[in-house]
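Folds abound. A case:
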Amino acid sequence: MTSVLRSTLLYARYSLLQTVRVPMSWVGNLVFPTLALCVFVLPQPDVVADPAASRDAVLSLATFAVMTSSLFGLGLGVAQNREHPWTRYTRTLPAPASARILSETISTGCVSVVAVLPVLLVGLVCTAADFTPGELLGGYLALAVSALPFMMLGIAVGNAFPAKAAIAVVQILMFGLAFGGGLFLAPSGFPHWAADVSLALPTRQAREFVLWAGAGAAFPGWLVLGLVGWTVVFFALALWLVRRDQSRGYA
C-alpha cells in the first residue's frame, strides 16, 4: 500500500508539471466553459435576472467545466502520452496500473479546480447568482466527487484509442453528455422521453448532485447511486484497458 501511494504521488507530480509547462493544454479548459456560459446563459435575460435560475445555470456550467477538463485532459492527454517514448519506458517499470490511474486523476483534478473559477467569476459578476461560503464549499466538494466518473471515462478513452481518434471520441462524448445531461439547457425544457433518458446519464446525475450541494436543491437520492455506479464501471474499464495496453506493448 505504501509503495502504491508513493508511486501515485510521484506520477501525479510529474504529470502536473508536464501539464503546467504546456499552457495550451489547460488554457482551453479555462476558456471554453466560460464561453459556453456567455453563449447559452447570458443572452437569456429571464435566467440572468432570476437568482435561482442563474445559480442552476452557473453550477451546470461548472459541472461542464469539470467534465471538459477530465475528458480532454485524460482522454486526449493519455492517448498522446502513450505515443511518447518516455511513457513507453515508464510503463515497463514495476509500478501497478492503479497507481498510474490515480496519479492521472489527481493531476487532472487540480486543473479542474482551476477551470471552475472563471465560470463562477463570470456567473457572480454578470448574473443574479449568489452563493454563501457554505454553498461554495459544498458545490466544490460535489464537483470533485462528480468529476470521478468522467476522469475514469477519459482514462479509458485515452487507453483505447490513438491520439487522432481520441480527440474525435472525446468531442462526441463531451457534447452528447453535456446536452443530454442538461448542462447547456435545463432538463425542465426537455420532452418527457428525453428527460427520462437524461436521468440515466452521468452528466445529469452529476448536475443534480452539484445543485443539491451548491444550491440547496432536493437530494437526488438514487441518482447519487447511479453516479457511484458509473464511477465503478468506468474505473474497472479504465483499469482493464491500462493493463491490456501495458501487456500488449510493454510486456
About this structure: The CA atoms of residues 37 and 127 lie 10 Å apart. DSSP finds twelve helices and no strands in the chain. The mean pLDDT is 84. The longest helix spans residues 51-82.
